[in-house]
Amino acid sequence: MVDSDSQYLHFDCFDLQEKTVVLRTAVYAKPNIHYCLPLWEAIRRLHSAIVHPWLLLGDFNSISGPSERQGGAGFNSYKVKDFNSCIKDCNLIDLGFAGPRFTWTNGHLSQRLDRALCNHEWLFQFPYSSNIHLPRLRSDHRPILVRNKILHPTMNPHRPFCFLAPWLTHDDFQPTLTASWKKDSEFIPSLLDLQHILCKWNKQVFGNILQRKKVMTTLLKVLEMQNNQGGSSLLIEEENKVREELEKTLWQEEVLWMQKACANWIKSGIATHTSSMWLPWRDVERVSLLDSKMKRAGGSRIRKSLNEWQETSTANFSLRM
Questions:
Q1: Domains observed in the chain
Q2: Which of 18, 95, 195, 277 is most buried, by the most CB atoms less than 10 A from its CB?
């Protein structure tokens, strides 16, 4: 972190893909105009020393003109003027937005208080930068998402099987696991059968988290627009259901990222213990099939044959079924 204040955090990062230093400022402005003035001066001060790509984003608690508000009483023209002067003095560019026009509402007044600003160096480095207004959930503010480039995801059809922690959040997972595990069979064949069943269950029942998130987000945007124009009680109820499902999907996405972070730590040798969500049978802290070692909780290691390891694992797993 380079600089901070009660209304902003300013930090530098090194973009590994672009191999360049970039600066970011997270803004959380106070609503009172007397607190905004020191913030604008602080941004001017930061600008005077910046030569790298710079992105500012967050809640500026100000609008740039009357078109960025709807409802309520008259707006403070002096506050608008001060905000626009800061943007002009620092040669900042508004990235605009995609999605609903307003980012904040109290039910009577709606305004675009959250935005993303950048300097010319940022746009030169990231010409495809865009700002997206995401659906508003429990907060009175919409989250905003800045994308620096168009993403082209690739699929690997030969990707090895991986137990996904978000499966544990699905109501149907535990019954499927219990019904599919063959207690009386040998460990490895049972594990391979379970792997096949879970892959099929993931495709037919659980689904792709990111695709589901995209669909729910789009649907919520449509329902919000319809209800803003005077929707029925059924539409409002449907919007609440979709918002609840989206919140659950976002939680599953967060769990997935936590699992991936844990896996990266283990691969790099930083972590010494696996996460509780990584293996259902966690009496064994670390398991290596290559040398058939098992590590005790106290740190000492013992060696077992593969058959002994299979019997131990089967017993531990069966107790949890």
A1: 3-147 (3.60.10.10), 279-321 (no CATH)
A2: 95
